[in-house]
Design brief:
50% strand; four-stranded antiparallel beta sheet; single chain; mainly beta; seven-stranded mixed beta sheet
């Protein structure tokens, strides 16, 4: 079973950037779709992005054009690059595999001046 650890969160000003690594341990990492979701204060959890085993990607409407996702199978890591951050991007960000119901503990991103 794959396990995940997110990192890279923190406090950033509006318009700034952050990169969130999602490090995986366990077996068969390269064959999985990896998702990023987020949950903001008082909000429901929402889809942010995913990357397939072959590198295909998709993004939620609220982050399209600002976020990118990539993976390094040799390092067993998926990266969420977040640019032009907005206060509404403030949330705990989680990576994981939907089909397996496996998620990391999350990393807090706060966008504020």
């Amino acid at each position: 079973q794959v396990q995940f650890v997110e990192s890279g969160g923190g406090l950033v000003q509006p318009g700034g950037s952050l990169r969130l690594p999602c490090a995986a341990s366990g077996t068969r990492f390269s064959g999985h779709f990896i998702h990023w979701h987020r949950q903001g204060p008082g909000k429901q959890r929402e889809f942010v992005a995913f990357i397939s085993s072959t590198g295909d990607t998709a993004f939620g409407d609220s982050v399209k054009g600002r976020f990118t996702i990539s993976r390094d199978n040799a390092k067993r890591t998926v990266y969420l690059q977040m640019n032009n951050l907005k206060p509404e991007d403030t949330a705990v960000y989680y990576c994981g595999i939907i089909a397996a119901g496996t998620w990391g503990q999350g990393t807090q991103v706060t966008v504020s001046s």
